[in-house]
Amino acid sequence: MIQFVVSILLFFVIFFGLAFILNMLLRQTWLMTFVYPFIILMIVDDIATTEYFVNPGSAFSTAFTRLTEITIADISILGAGFIGTIVSGFVVRYLRKSGYRMF
């Protein structure tokens, strides 16, 4: 149970930080929110990225099969990361609105 809570917190903080840094550097507030599903696909699918280009039919079918097999615990941990990217976007918008210039 403790590992589950720590995992949720860790994914939230990691993806909040990554999204915040990307927002500062690229000035694209919601970029990480749109990229996050692809990152999740790379985490869950356990397939080499080149396999999507070499053998796309079986790679995508395997990836979507593995996506449907994840548990509620995995969904909540990955969802915490997605919420972290969304919160980061709102924080950056608030800071810019408040007059802070970031790079």
Automatic annotation (TrEMBL):
Keywords, in A-Z order: Membrane, Transmembrane, Transmembrane helix
InterPro entries tied to this protein: YuiB
Membrane-spanning residues: 6-26, 33-55, 75-95
One Pfam family matching this protein: YuiB
Protein name: YuiB family protein
